[in-house]
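Per your request, structure below.
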């Protein structure tokens, strides 16, 4: 058995939400290992610095992860805490990624100072979102509304709403809850309206594969159902090229040893969307994701990806 490390340096983005999530991990580790010294290594990533363009135009989800991985490789940190939805589907081969704790509510949240729901916003109302995934689904469900880009951390986005720049904004409910901002959630969007992002509401811990001591340290915190959901969703994402420049979502429910996974691929304007589901045993979670991805590609998803590739060329 690998000895428990005496000190752990956790790399984290410096947003309020990222620090809160890293703090959750720190507190859980300290509670189980009272003698463990935990240091937070704050890093402002390119994804946090470049806020004037959509994420897909400046490098995608990896912008929130790469610099934390570099800190680990340069021995400035031992591990990194991520929102799993920000982690690319493929990692460098020398890194391991595990889930930490139970999944928080994975649904999207409707936030507004003027309206009770999307349905109550008059035609032409402006809704802010940072996600092509949300935009695709919500344009399809609410074609009379306008959807505009919204970047920045949670507090920045809420401030823009409060300044009157938007009639409503859509955020991940998990982030608001982890920040103690439950009161800002006007409603959660049903998964039938807005299927969550891959890994939404799940915390991930990344570290070098050769650190068996860290693997042993975090293993007791892996919730089996959350881990199975993550495997299914990320396996689906790898097949359909899930990234922030492709409108894609997936949500796995785990119950009585079974995984039921729903996923979609669509066009940003909502004009085309393929959504299907698959299920199987938790031991086959990755296979469930692969099968669903292949079925969606065969049902029209491959053509959608081809159109997106043409548009970006």
């Amino acid at each position: 058995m690998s000895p428990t490390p005496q000190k752990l340096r956790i790399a984290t983005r410096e947003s309020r939400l990222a620090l809160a999530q890293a703090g959750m991990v720190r507190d859980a580790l300290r509670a189980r290992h009272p003698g463990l010294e935990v240091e937070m290594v704050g890093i402002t990533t390119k994804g946090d610095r470049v806020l004037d363009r959509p994420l897909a135009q400046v490098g995608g989800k990896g912008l929130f992860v790469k610099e934390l991985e570099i800190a680990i490789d340069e021995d400035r940190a031992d591990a990194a805490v991520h929102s799993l939805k920000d982690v690319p589907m493929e990692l460098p081969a020398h890194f391991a990624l595990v889930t930490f704790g139970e999944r928080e509510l994975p649904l999207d949240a409707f936030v507004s100072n003027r309206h009770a729901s999307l349905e109550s916003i008059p035609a032409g109302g402006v809704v802010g979102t940072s996600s092509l995934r949300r935009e695709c689904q919500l344009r399809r469900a609410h074609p009379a509304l306008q959807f505009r880009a919204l970047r920045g951390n949670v507090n920045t986005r809420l401030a823009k709403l409060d300044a009157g720049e938007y009639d409503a904004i859509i955020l991940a409910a998990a982030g608001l809850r982890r920040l103690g901002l439950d009161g800002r959630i006007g409603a959660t969007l049903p998964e039938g309206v807005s299927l969550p992002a891959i890994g939404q509401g799940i915390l991930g811990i990344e570290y070098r594969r050769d650190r068996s001591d860290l693997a042993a340290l975090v293993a007791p915190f892996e919730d089996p159902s959350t881990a199975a959901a993550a495997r299914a969703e990320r396996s689906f994402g790898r097949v359909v090229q899930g990234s922030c420049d492709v409108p894609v979502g997936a949500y796995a429910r785990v119950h009585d040893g079974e995984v039921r996974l729903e996923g979609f691929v669509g066009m940003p304007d909502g004009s085309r969307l393929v959504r299907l589901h698959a299920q199987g045993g938790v031991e086959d979670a990755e296979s469930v994701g692969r099968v669903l991805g292949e079925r969606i590609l065969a049902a029209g998803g491959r053509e959608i990806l081809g159109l997106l590739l043409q548009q970006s060329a």
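The chain has three domains: 1-103+201-222, 108-188, 223-313.

Regards,
D.
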